[in-house]
Model the fold of this input.
Amino acid sequence: MRKARNGDTIEFQRKKQVFEGLVEIERENSVIVSIKKEAAAELDYETNRTVVKHGNYTVTSMDLAR
Done:
C-alpha cells in the first residue's frame, strides 16, 4: 500500500460507510484529511477535518502537480 501524500484523494471507512477526502497534512502514522461538510455532519463531527491512520485508507487519485 502506498502512503498518501498532500493533495491525494483517499477513501476510508467510518461507521460502516465509505467516505472520500483530500489529504492536507502527512504525519508519520496518519494523514489529516478534509471531507465534505455533509460527510462531517453525517459523522457528527464539529469540523470537516479528520485523522486517518495509514493502512485504513485507499489512495483513489494522486496529486499530479507534484
In short: The helical segments are 37-42. DSSP finds one helix and five strands in the chain.
